[in-house]
Amino acid sequence: MESLAAVDLGSNSFHMVIARVDHGGVQIVDRLREPVRLAAGLREDGSLDDDSKERALQCLRLFGQRLRDFGAEQVRAVGTNTLRKARNSYQFLHDASEALGHHIEIITGREEARLIYLGVSHGIAGAPTRRLVVDIGGGSTECIVGDGFEAVAVHSMYMGCVGFTQQFFHDGKISRKRMQSAKLAAGLELQPVEAKLRQQGWDRAIGASGTIRSVADILNEAAWAHGTITADGLAKLEQALVTAGRLERLDLPALDADRRPVFAGGVAILSATFERLGIDEMWVSPTALREGLLYDMLGRIQDEDPRDRTIRMLSSRYSIDQAHADRVQATALGLLEQVARDWELESVDATHALVWAAQLHEIGLAVNYTGHHKHGAYLVAQSDLPGFSRDEQAMVAALIRGHRRKLDDSYFESLPPELRTTAKHLCVLLRLAVLLNRNRDPQAVTLPELQASGNKLRVHFDEDWLTAHPLARADLEREQPLLKAAGLKLNGFDTD
Quick one: 34 exposed, middle or buried, by C-beta within 10 A (0-12, 13-18, 19+)? Predict the structure, then answer.
């Protein structure tokens, strides 16, 4: 029975859950949580202060001990809002990955929302089909409407309990005026998505994660509600905060000590959400992002990878020539197999990136043939790609951008430094695969023999092949100076 682990590097707390795969589902066997408050260490210039980084690394070292015997395919670790906002976080992510012993990826706000919905929908069997899910984190708030296990409207807003507490209750004082100011700010964040959410409609509102669970516990303990969060009970809690006047004076036994410092900001956001969306009652989910990660991993194991569904959806939406994309993919994989060891491209991630880029390399034709590699890169970089991390999305966009015409190192600058050489080498393989399939012949392409060493690639064709394919020979000759300008040498075929 295989074990899986999900690690959530949230803006307020870091969480880890470990589960066993059991009869097609997951069974939680362990949980760890540390109140790191990463968002509190985000400076005005976007950098993380040393104290917050050290707290984070200490926590991840602890988590890493528990994951010591886990393989890479058994762990998924993600960073959310604060790491999305952090400037030049590459070095910290490198150190954090080393501390954890596993790769850490940063996910977009929309991907975070999708995973939250996935986790919630697996934890509320028997609930009405149409759901509004609200999750208030340390640095962002997600609102999702979905049916069953599928999210149909996904929104992520830059407001969270840590940031709002720092902004409106930084000195610990809580007043009616400050609470109203915080609620007004939250209402302004919600305003652009309010009409869209109401238009979708829902049968039941469900809340997830720490702030909302804490509110539910407090209302239940105070007998202001019974098992759910009601608008009336929430108003009583808001009044209790204002009456206390200061965070340290809060007399709420059900409020955890590590939640107390950021609680006021979370209550303000939740109150505004109730008012703006007209919520009367909210049920509380025991599951959220971590469980969503587990079920997402389970889907990948069971060949139900949401990233593959996303690629198919884009191919259909933009009317991509599927037969041609499949031929380019097959050629690219045949080339990859020959140089994977020498160019250190043996990882599953490298193979996935090349496949996805091959499938979408002509997506820009939906805009215009001229510069379609540029249009395609923009479409992929700016689209909502369910299942993709930020780096995965940037990798596919970079490969599409560089698959024809000029090849420049600037195409890969959005990637972490350790991925840039990998991206350039994958891009060369995609360029060759596209070149060899230029005539769009349904017959299988005759693959050349490849030998790679550093920035050199030797290409050898069967005798007389180039003579029989003058267009391919001309394209290869044109490739040489283009790759040379990017610091790569292509040789091995006669150009006399």
Answer: middle
Which regions of the chain carry the CATH code 1.10.3210.10? Answer: 305-491
Pairing of strands 75-79, 104-106: parallel
Where do you find CATH 3.30.420.40 in the chain? 3-107
The β-bridge partners of 16 are 7, 32
Architecture per CATH, 305-491: Orthogonal Bundle (1.10)
The two three-digit tokens of residue 27, written as one number: 């069974």
Please write the tens of the pLDDT for every residue from 22-37: 877 789 999 999 999 8
Helix or strand run (H / E) with residue 17: strand 14-22
Indicate the CATH number for domain 3-107: 3.30.420.40
Which strand (E) or helix (H) includes residue 484?
helix 470-485
- Cα gap 287→121, rounded to integer Å: 8
Three state DSSP letters for 273-300:
HHHHHCCCEEEECCCCHHHHHHHHHHHH
**Residue 453, SS3 per DSSP:** strand
Residue range 124-285, CATH number: 3.30.420.150
Helix (H, G, I), strand (E, B) or coil at 445: coil
Q: Spell out a b/e string for 318-346, using b for 16 or more CB atoms within 10 Å of the CB, else e.
A: bebeeebbebbbbbbbbbbebbbeebebe
Beta bridge partners of residue 452, listed in sequence order: 457
| pLDDT tens-digit map of 100-157 | 999 999 999 999 999 999 999 988 766 557 999 999 999 999 999 999 888 999 999 9
Q: How far is CA 416 from CA 51, 248, 390, 391, in A?
A: 24, 42, 11, 8
In the chain, the N- to C-terminal Cα span, in Å, equals 61
Q: pLDDT category, 305, cuts 50, 70, 90?
A: confident
The three-state secondary structure class of 406 is coil
- Distance CA(266)–CA(234), nearest Å, equals 12
> For residue 365, with 0-12 CB atoms within 10 Å meaning exposed, 13-18 middle and 19 or more buried, which class applies?
middle
The residues of the chain that CATH labels 3.30.420.150 are 124-285
Nearest to 269 by CA among 184, 370, 356, 336: 184
> Own/partner pairs for 339-345, CB < 8 Å, 24+ apart?
339/425, 339/429, 339/450, 339/451, 339/452, 339/457, 342/451, 342/452, 342/453, 343/425, 343/452, 344/422, 345/422, 345/425, 345/426
The pair of structure tokens assigned to 337 is: 């197999």
